[in-house]
Design goal:
The complex is a heterodimer of chains A (261) and B (468). Chain A has 261 residues and is α/β, with parallel strands linked by helices. Chain A has helices at residues 42-49, 72-77, 95-102, 111-116, 119-138, 154-166, 184-201, 212-218, 236-240, 243-250, 254-260, and strands spanning 4-13, 16-26, 31-35, 57-62, 65-66, 80-82, 172-176, 204-208, 221-226, 229-234. Chain B folds into 2 domains: 24-75; 90-432, no CATH class. In chain B, 70% of the residues lie in helices and 1% in strands. Classes of the chains: A alpha/beta (261), B mainly alpha (468). The interface between A and B is large, with 44 and 37 residues.
Chain lengths: 261, 468
Amino acid sequence: MALLETKKVVKRFGGLTAVDRMDFTLEEGRIVSIIGPNGAGKTTFFNTLTGIYKPEEGEIVFDGHPLIGLRPDQITSLHIARTFQNIRLFGNMTVIENIIVGMYPRQRQSAFDALLRTRAFKDEEKSAQDKAIKLMKYVGLGNVGNELARNLPYGAQRRIEIARALASDPKLLLLDEPTAGMNPHETDEAIALFRRIRDELGITILLIEHDMRVVMNISERISVMDYGVKIAEGKPEEIRSNPQVIEAYLGRGAIAEMTAS
Amino acid sequence: MAKPTQTNISSLLKPIWGWITKGITPYIILVVYLAISSFLVFNSPRSLPAFLMFVSSVVLLYYLPTKIWYKAVLGVLIIFVIIPIVGVRNIFYLEIIFQICVFAALALGLNILTGFTGLLSFGYIAFYAVGAYLWGFFGGQQMFLLHAIPGSAGPPGKFFLPADTFYLFLFLGFGLAFLVGILLGLPVLRVRGDYLTVVTLGFGEVIRLLATNMDKPLNLTNGPQGISPIQRPTLPEPLLQALRVVLNPIVGHEVTLNEFYNLFFYLLALAIAVVIIIVTVRLDDSKLGRAWIAIREDELAAASMGIPLVTTKLIAFAVAASFAGIMGVIFSASRMFVSPESFIFMQSIGVLTMVILGGLGSIPGVILGAAIVVIINLGILTDLSIYLGELRQSDKVIPIINFAWKNLSSQLDPAKYQRLVFGIILILMMIYRPNGILPAKRRARAIEEHFVELNNNNNEKEAENGAA
């Protein structure tokens, strides 16, 4: 059974249909990309998946749970985690706190446990800290746990965001342009990290990406969006040669030119 | 330009601080400083500088690195011996310390709302009013006057409830304010950012106007005149007698019942302030506290991390309100009087000043902020006023410019410039130290050890590379 399935999802902003009757199926354990030109509706589609936007029409089912009408925090509790296109860390919290915030839906302590500093509270805080340290190492962060997140360089912030997302024990990880702004070396490291996350942790990954090198390198399947509509879907090599995709990216006439030359 | 001077100052201070904090020096400094300042306050009960020196000894006690038992011993000595003695000698100091405790609690409450959760509130004092009017109504004679014309006197000496139900009402004030916090929070949280601030301002005024106008058709609040008298809990006479035996010779006069009440309310407010500090510290470093701060930092990201926004913000409202509610009960009992005057918009701004001055989100900061604002308000400005008043009475003349003090306009009375001073404080803080006197710090965790291995590995790798 598919881990995530959307049927005819529509999201409109005023007169603009940002996502138009989107049918999308994601099998468990895959790494899948959504690509498309700027303004194609990729991030809007992500936001409808995570409950930030409510779609006007359609169905979204994740792991047997219908997601339409749920709040973002409820959707996160169902083991979907995400990162953001422009990094959104909690800047004035330490790195380790940022990651522990990611464990929010999995922590069981009540405010009374915190006030009385019960055994259960201390154990949970200790294991949260240990887990955060493990995650920091996993994503390749050094000893920066006590630094404020906003003081760290861009690449490290991207890693923290991924560690924070992993902290919520996701089954599905949504990455919104995770390699934007990275240099080629950092990009290669990121690709290796995503592979490890899938292979070692068994987490399904859906990513939005602009960098074709990344997309073609890592994706097992690719969906292409343009003007809110899914125009193509398939394996990387199929997408590479799909005329509609080339047209969407390079404009009408591009194919003619390519064949002419 | 500003930066080099700052580093210069801190580099100058560093060796001094290093010397002060080494070995047994801090122990000696503390005890000597405390002894001198206590002696000065004891000897000249009217001298404000002596009192300020005494207050600063408490700050020193907090910051100088000594063993915890040493701090505890000195703390107990200050709370139960020195303050009662110097406080009874000059009851005004006891009043200042009482107000510092009350406002520190309020500032800590507002800090949860504004400092942690980032919900700027201009109507926080409303929750204080809820607690104060709760005990005002049940602890006064209002129950007998429900159908009377506002302002009529109650049956002399007769109260609706026994005085000692006050202790129960501490909890009820806490609970009621908690509920009111949730009730107000529900509609307020439908809006965000600046709009939320405006709505809280509206609610603050609504509560005050309710207090002013709920004298008809049922006289619940006695209108603008306020409720008076309000009961205080009883103090056991034998205990007072025993304390008089000890205190009378030290302070040099017969300690009156009112002075004992001042002592009692000081200790009660301090005890509750301490509980509130513990609660705030513990919540701050927990799932709930992290969720509050995450919401302040980035609401959308917080929601995406699984934090339910509305519930978490409502809890912030309720907890903040409950701190104010319990202090409201103490306030109305200690004044034996409550009126809408005490809950004007300026009071909300006053508490906000404390929070901003000390440092948004910083627990020691807002306590210090509360202390500074109360001392400026009650101590320094009032003292200056009295001093200028005395000069005006005298025939003294400023030499050179030949200005006779008695010609000084009474418009220049510093006590009238409270708002001006607050305004200047807020502006200066926003420009030069937007994070406050003691900016908020996140707890550093002992996690070095987990990365030692990593560093070693790296070093080994580098060594290998070097060898190759």
